[in-house]
Specification:
With 203 residues, this protein is an alpha+beta fold. It has helices at 4-13, 24-44, 46-51, 53-64, 70-78, 80-84, 87-109, 170-185, 187-200; strands at residues 116-118, 130-138, 145-152, 159-165, 168-169. The chain has one domain: Tgt2/MlaC (Nuclear Transport Factor 2, Chain: A).
């Protein structure tokens, strides 16, 4: 069975790659159509992508991540530390956090092997600027994985700001992990640690 972070990463990768439009119903339609297109691309080039991690990183960076709100995600992950961080520290964290997710999501996406994907009815909470898109991944011989994507369109197009897998928020998970690291060594230590890991894996 996939590790929780990899499952969450896979969930994220199954949703956004192309232009989005404001209506909440369109957000769900795009999740569905993009899932098929992204997985088709990966399955068609899987051997080459497995042999060259850089190609997989590029796929994630170019097709998926332009539709994520990394500033909002980073603010939530850092919590109070975001408020006390300098502009340079914020920019450095956002960049290293993005690279971490590129690597994690690339690994998770390559683990996909034909699981069934279904879509419960769309939910829209908190007003017209937010939407919750549900997705269920069924694995043969295993329990289903319920996914909830949280999106907003406050700046125009729909963008992801969090995802929950089995009720566990990806943003909250990283917030707890990074919070401990900041408590022990400060935000500069966290950024340096992320940078070291990212360089180790070539992204």
């Amino acid at each position: 069975m996939m590790k929780p972070v990899l499952r969450a990463a896979l969930a994220l990768l199954l949703m956004f790659a192309f232009a989005v439009v404001p209506a909440a119903e369109d957000a769900q339609a795009i999740v569905q159509s993009t899932t098929e297109q992204v997985l088709d691309r990966v399955q068609a080039d899987k051997a080459a992508l497995q042999d060259d991690p850089g190609k997989m990183y590029n796929l994630v960076s170019e097709l998926i991540f332009p539709h994520f709100d990394f500033d909002i995600m980073s603010q939530w992950v850092l919590g109070d530390s975001w408020n006390t961080a300098s502009a340079e520290q914020r920019a450095a964290f956002v960049e290293q956090f993005r690279k971490l997710l590129v690597r994690t999501y690339a690994t998770a996406l390559l683990e996909f092997s034909g699981q069934e994907i279904t879509y419960p009815p769309l939910e829209q909470k908190g007003g017209a600027n937010t939407a919750m898109v549900k997705q269920v991944i069924s694995q043969p011989g295993s329990s289903v994985i319920p996914i909830v994507y949280r999106l907003h369109n406050k700046s125009g197009p729909w963008k992801v700001f969090d995802v929950s897998v089995d009720g566990v928020s990806l943003v909250k998970t990283y917030r707890a992990s990074f919070g401990s690291m900041i408590k022990d060594g400060g935000i500069d230590s966290l950024i340096a640690s992320l940078d070291s890991k990212n360089q180790q894996y070539g992204n």
